Predict the structure of TMV resistance protein N-like.
Amino acid sequence: MAIQLASSSLPPSWTYDVFLSFRGEDTRFTFTDHLYEALNRNGIDTFIDRHLKRGEEISPAFLKAIEESRVSVIVISENYASSRWCLDELVHILECRRSRQQIVWPVFYKVDPSHVRNQTSRFADAFTGHECKYKDEEKILLWRSALKEVANLSGHTVKEEEYEATFISQIVNEILVLVLQRPHLNVAKYQVGMESCVEKVKELLDVGGNDPCVVGIWGASGIGKTEVAKTVYNAIAYKFEGSCFLAMQYGGLLQLQNTLLSEIGGSEWKVVNPHRANSLIEKLLRRKKILLILDDVDELEQLNNLVQVEWLGEGSRVIITTKDRGLLNSYDVELIYEVQKLEDNKALELLSWKAFGKKEPSDDYLGLAQSAIAYAQGHPLALNLIGSYLRNKSIDRWQAILDNYDSYDREPYGGIQKILRKSYDTLDYVMQQVFLDIACFFKGERKDYVLQILRSSKLNVPQDCIDVLVEKAIITVEDNSILMHDLLEKMGKRIVREESPIEPGERSRLWHHEDVYHVLTENRGTKKIKGIVVKLPKLDVIPLNAKSFFKMVNLEIFISRNAHFSGCIEYLPDDLRWIEFGGVKLQDWGSNILQKHILTFNLQSNCHLRHLVAFIMPNSGIKQLKGFENLAMLTSLNLSGSEFLEKIPNLSGNPNLRELILDKCERLVEVDDSVGFLDKLVTLSFDGCSRLKRFATRLGLRSLQSLVLQGCTRLESFPEIEPEMESLGYLDINDSGIRELPSSIAYLTRLVHLRARYCKNLTSTSLRHIFGLQHLSYIEMDECPKLVTFGKFSTHLDTSHDNGIPLALPNVGCTYLDLSGCNLSETDFLVPLLWWSKLECVHLDRNNFVSLPECISKFVNLKRLYLSGCKRLREIPHALPPNLSKLSLDDCTSLEKIPKLPSRLRHMQLANCFGLSGDEVAKLENNLLNLNQESLLCSQLQVMYPGNEIPKRFSYTSKHLTANRIESGREYNGGSEFSFEIPLNLQERETLLGLAFSCVFQPLPLELRRYWLFVEINILCGGRADYKEFQWFGNGMELETDHVGLMLVDLEKKRGDICKVKVHKRTGPRIKICGMHPLFRKEDERLPLSLGPMSSLGSTDIVDDEYDRQQQWPSLSLNPADDHPKRTQIDHNVPSDIEEEQEQPSTISDLLGVWDARFKSCGVHPLLRKEDEWLPLSLGPTSSLGKRPLVHLDPQISSRRNMIGNDNGVL
C-alpha cells in the first residue's frame, strides 16, 4: 500500500525527541541497544521498536511515532536494505524531513556510504531479491531513491575496529546541543557502573513533585560524585525553567553568586556586594522552578550564601556533592546518596575501556588487569588514571609499572595521590594526626579500642574524631571495625615517610618491622617519634637495652603485636600513654630462649609515668607490680598469663583504673582489699587463676559491670556486697570453689547474667535472693551437685528484711534457667517462679525428680524445655505451656506417659525412652499427625522416638513403592538419598497443605551421632516449579536401638500437578526406610482435611492406587481386597485424642439401593454429626493419591442429606 503522511496545517508538535530506525538482526543487541541506553540516560525521549518480529506493512501507530519525532537516527547496516519494513520506514522518515522539518541523522554502521548511494555490494543483492519477490516497480524505485537521498546526508560512519562508545557519545552530545539546544555538561566517555547511581539519585529527586527538594551526593575523593551529578543534570535539566551547575573550587563566593544569577536569570550579572547578591538570588529563586547543582562543597558558609531551602520555588531541586556528610547534616539534608566503589566486574570493564578501548581485555593482559584492579580496589579515579597511562603499552611495560606502585612520585600513582591528598588537606591539625595514626597503625582495629588510644593523646582529641572522618568519607566503620581504602592508607604512610625519606628515626611514626628493629637496637630514636606499632612477619626477638627509649622523649604509643623483647628496660619516656605487648606466650619460645630473653621492668628507677593510660602485657615475666601503685591516669592494666605474678598490691593510688585483667595468672594467690573499692573499675577478671585463695573481702565497686572468677578452684568464699554496688550486670563464678553466695547479693539489683556452672561446693543457701533479682535474665547453674533442693519458697510477695537485707520483689524478666545436673529431687521451686512471666528456656536435664508440677503449664512464654537424662521421670503434666516449641526428653528411660502436645511444637526428642508402651507410641503418632490441623502455625515439626517402623498410614515408602513412585533410593559415601514423585490430582479449590516425612534410623558410633538431613520439595504446576528446602539435624544423642524420625512440613496451601521430594543425608545414622505422606485441604472448609486415613476412624485401610489400577478395581472403591499390600488393620484399643466414630454400613447399595454389575465391591464410611454442630465433615478417609469422598454431609444441602438418612442423622 502507498504510505500516506498525516497532514496538518499546525506547526509540528513532538512527542518523541528521537526515532530509532535499524535492522534488528544486525544491531538490535549491540550498537543500537547501546545508543538507545545512552540517549535515554541523558534524558532524550527515544522511540525504539522492541518487537523481534514484524509484519509486511507498517502499522499506523508506527507511522505516527515517526511523524511525532523531532529527530530520526537511521542506523544503516549491511542487511538494512533487505527488509521491506526498513525501506518503507526510511521513505516515511524522508517524507517527514521534507514536510515537517524533521532532522534526519544517518549512521552508516560498518558500511560504505557509496554502497548505499549506488546500491552496490550487499545492497545490490537485497534489491535483486526484492525485484524477484515484488512486482511493484514504482515501490522499488521509491526505495532506491530514498537510499540515495539518505546517503547524501551528513552523518556518522562507524568503521570496523573502531570504538563504538566514541561515536555514541558524539551522537548524543550533538543531539543535545545542536538539535534540542538543551543545557549539557561534558561527562566521561565510559560511564561504567553509572546507570544505577543516576537512577537512584533521580528517584530521590522525585522531579514530578511540587515541593522543593535538596539531595546530597556523598563519597570519597575521586569516587565519582561529580560524574553522577553531571549525568543527572544532563538527563533532567530541560524539565526546569532554569538550571545551573556551580563547581565550588572555581572562584570565590562573589564570583559564584554572580554565575548563579547569570545562568538562572538569563543575563550577565556583576554584583559587587555578597549581601546584595544574597537578596537577589532569593528573589530570583522564588520565581522559578530551577535545578541547581553545587559541586564539591566543603564549607557550610558557601551553602548558606548561595541557596537556602526557604528560597526555593515550587518544584525546584538542589543537588549538593561533598566529601563531608557532617556538612549535609548541618544543612538538614535528609536525602543522601552515598557513591560506592565499583564491584570487581565493573572495575575490570572500566579499566578495559580506558586501556584497550573495549569491554574486556585480551587473555594476555587479563592477569595484569586484575593486578591493577586489586591496587585500585574499585576506585574510579585510580582506574581511569591507571587505564589511561597503560593504554597501548606492552605487557613488559605493564608489568614494570604495576611492580612499582609504591613509587608515589611516578605516574600514574603520583596523580592518584595528588587527588586523594585533597581530603587530607581539608582537615585541621588534630584530625590530620588522627588520620595518620589510623593509616599507619589502626586500620582494621576495633573502633572503641582505637578511640581509647587516640583519646589518651596530649592533643585533646575530640570524642567524635572517628565519626568526623567517617562523615568526610575518609574511613568507614563496619561491625565496629575501622576500615580505610588502601589508596588512602598508602597516602597516609607516604606523608609520614616524606618527613624523613632516609632515616626512620626522624619520622613521627614507625610501623615497618625493619625500621622498628633498626631504631630500637641501634638507639637511633629521636624526639620526633610519637608512636611505634610493630608486627613481625615471623616470631623473633628484639634485644633492648636500658637506653633504647632514652631519646624518644615525645613517645606516646608503643604497641607490639607479636614481637618478643629481651633485656631490662630502666627508662620509659614521661609522655608515654599506651604500652601494649600482645600475642606471644612464653611457651612459644624454647627453654634456651626463655633463659636468655626475658623482658623485665624496673619502673621505680625510671621517670614517673604520670600520663600512662594503659599497660597491657599478657604472658609477661613480671613477678611483682612495683611502680604500679600510684599511676593516677592509668585506666587499663592487663597482665593475663603472667605465670610468675603472685600478689596484687594496694592499688588505691590508681583511682581511674577501669579495667583490671589478670586471667590465667596461675601462681596468683592474693588480691589486696583495695581492689574492692576502685570506684571507676568497670571490668574485673581473674579467669583461670586456679591458686587464688584470698580475694577482696568486701566489694563496693559502684561502676563494676563485669566480674569473672571462673576457674578459681581454691577460692571458697565470695565477698560481701556493699549497697552501692548496683551496676554489676555479669557475674561468672563457673568452676570455682565458692561454697555460698552471701545474702548481700540481693544488692546486685542490675545483675542480668549469672554463671555458676560446675560449682561442686555451691549449696542452695540464699538462692532465694538470686531468684528475686528483678533484672536477672540468664541463670546458668548446671552441674552443681550439692544444690539438691531449694527448700521452701513463698508464693507471695515478700518485702520484709532478712538480716538487714531487703528481699527483692519477684523477678519478672528472667528468660533462661539452667539447673541441669544438680541432683534435684523435687520441683516445688518452680511454683514461686510463676512470677517469671518472660521465661523462655528451661534446662532441667539429668536430675532426679519423678514428675513435674502442674504449674508448668502456667509459663505461657516458655518455648524450650529440656528434661534429657532424667531417668526417674515417669510422667509429665497433661497440659504443657501453650507456646512450647521444643521438648527434649532423651534418655528419660522411665517415662511412661506423653502429654497432649501444644500446637506450636516444632521439635520433640524421645531418644532411648524405652518405658513408652506400643499403645503410647501409637497414640503419639496419631497426636502428631493431627497436631497442626487447625492451622499449620510452624514451618515444620520434628520428632524422634524409639521404633523400627514408620507410621502405617504413610502412602509412599522406600520399602514398598513401585518404580514410578520412587525415583531412587541409594546409599553413597555413608549417606542416603531417596527421591519421591507424588501425583497430586487436586480437585477444584483444593490445595496441598503440607507433607509428613518419616524414616527409621539405625544407631551408629559416637563420631557419627551428629547428622544433617535435607528435604527438598519441588511442586510442579504446568512446567513451573515451586521450590522449598528444609533441614533436619540430629543432636548427637547416642541411639541404643532403631528410632523413628517424623517431620511435618507446612507448604502454605500449594497447588500443582506433581510433588517431587528428595531426601538426602551426608553423615550420621543409616536410614533403613523412609516414607512420605501428603496433607490436602479444600479452601472453603473450615477444618482442614486429615492427613490421609486416620486410625481414629475405625477399621480404615491405607489405599495404594497403583495396586488398584493393576487389579482393575473400580475407581470408587475405598476398601481394597484383603491381600492388598498396603492394607493395615488399625488397633481399636489404641487411645487417641480424637473421638472415634461408630462403624457404619459398608456398601453404597445398603444406603441408596443402587448396584452396578461392574463393581466387584464398594464401600462407604459416613461421618455423623448433630444438627447444632457447625463444622462440615468429610465422608470417610481421604486418599492421598487423588480419591475423594463421594458425599459431604452439609446441613445446607438438604437434598443430599435426604438421600442417605433422616434429619436426626440416622441412616
